[in-house]
């Protein structure tokens, strides 16, 4: 499923199936860094490819693929058991800090985790991406860099985005399209952890008891700002309803003070209608999720809301 779009530089990196490599991938994602040994970058201009990466470039980690000992483009119609998507936040550098337990991997790039998918067919990544991953698998996980259209936007891209080439002043063609996109894989687990089997859930912000489908397991400290372990901590999760509470908290229109009370954020002064909603819904309310363990996450959110 090739999709036209903006061309960007993407590093394709294959991670072998062995336990050490799987462990190292988890450590790298948690620490937001990836590294290579000298010999992994010594072939076919691997060092040059790694050096070409700049902040904002894409990284696609492929894992659990078929044998790489096939003819070129032999992975075109293959399936990968797992694909992880990231963005480069720091260009190639050398470090002696010991991150992984087996080897130092001194050549490194820093990363921002974007998302992951399981059982990804080659059609989703495209022939160019799958061939790059096959080459990486044959070169000790060397980064294979390609300039491609929408390297993983077609897999993790925003569902509501309008392609640049579309003219929004007119519309023709079918009304339905298809897009593979990332989702928060932990959401179902977190909902089960926080809400159990309850069919009705009380929102921790407005206090309304609502059908389960209207209540989200929302991160207190914004998920994008969390280190990997923080994303799964129960104390960083609260029940926030989809009837307005999740949005106004997420975007800093309200925050929770040091006494656990909900307060209007500075952004409310810009939008009178939001200010009225906040005054109506949250005046003199205490947050049901506030406590000793959740306090640091609310403090972080409060700092962001007041700073903005």
Which short descriptors sum up this protein?
six-stranded mixed β-sheet, 26% helix, disordered N terminus, alpha+beta, 308 residues, 8 helices, 25% strand, two-stranded antiparallel sheet, elongated
What does this structure look like?
The protein has 308 residues and is of the alpha+beta class. It has helices at residues 19-31, 46-52, 122-137, 153-156, 187-195, 245-250, 272-282, 295-307, and strands spanning 7-15, 33-36, 58-63, 79-94, 107-121, 144-149, 200-202, 209-211, 215-219, 237-241, 254-256, 262-264. The strands form four sheets. A six-stranded mixed β-sheet has the order 2-5-4-3-1-6, with helices on both faces. Strands 7-8 form a two-stranded antiparallel ribbon. Strands 9-10 form a two-stranded antiparallel sheet.
**Arithmetic mean of pLDDT:** 84
In the predicted model, the low-confidence regions spanning at least 5 consecutive residues are 1-5, 156-168, 175-183
Anisotropy-based shape: elongated
- As laid out across the biggest beta sheet, the strand order is 2-5-4-3-1-6
Q: What share of residues is helical?
A: 25-40%
Counting helices, strands and paired strands, the structural category is alpha+beta
Cα-to-Cα separation, first versus last residue: 41 Å
Q: Helix count, per DSSP?
A: 8
Order of helices and strands: EHEHEEEHEHHEEEEHEEHH
Largest β sheet strand count, sense and barrel closure: 6 strands, mixed
Number of strands: 12
- Taking all Cα atoms into account, the compactness measure Rg is 22 Å
Beta strand %: 25-35%
């Amino acid at each position: 499923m090739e999709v036209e779009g903006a061309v960007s530089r993407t590093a394709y990196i294959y991670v072998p199936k062995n336990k050490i490599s799987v462990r190292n991938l988890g450590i790298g994602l948690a620490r937001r860094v990836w590294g290579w040994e000298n010999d992994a970058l010594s072939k076919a201009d691997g060092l040059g490819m790694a050096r070409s990466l700049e902040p904002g470039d894409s990284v696609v980690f492929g894992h659990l693929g078929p044998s790489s000992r096939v003819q070129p483009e032999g992975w075109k119609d293959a399936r990968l058991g797992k694909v992880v998507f990231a963005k480069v936040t720091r260009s190639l550098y050398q470090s002696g800090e010991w991150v992984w337990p087996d080897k130092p991997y001194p050549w490194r790039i820093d990363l921002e985790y974007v998302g992951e998918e399981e059982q990804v067919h080659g059609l989703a990544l495209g022939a160019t991406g799958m061939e790059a991953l096959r080459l990486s698998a044959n070169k000790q996980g060397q980064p294979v860099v390609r300039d491609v259209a929408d390297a993983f936007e077609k897999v993790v891209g925003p569902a509501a985005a309008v392609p640049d080439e579309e003219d929004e002043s007119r519309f023709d063609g079918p009304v339905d399209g298809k897009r593979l996109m990332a989702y928060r894989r932990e959401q179902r687990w977190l909902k089960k952890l926080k809400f159990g089997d309850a069919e009705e859930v009380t929102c921790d912000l407005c206090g309304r008891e609502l059908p389960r489908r209207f209540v989200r397991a929302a991160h207190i400290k914004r998920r994008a700002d969390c280190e990997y372990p923080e994303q799964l901590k129960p104390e960083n999760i609260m029940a926030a309803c989809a009837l307005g509470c999740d949005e106004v908290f997420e975007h800093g229109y309200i925050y929770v003070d040091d006494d656990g009370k909900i307060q209007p954020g500075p952004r409310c002064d810009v939008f009178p209608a939001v200010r009225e909603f906040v005054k109506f819904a949250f005046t003199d309310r205490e947050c049901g999720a506030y406590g000793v363990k959740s306090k640091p996450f609310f403090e972080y959110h409060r700092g962001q809301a007041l700073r903005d």
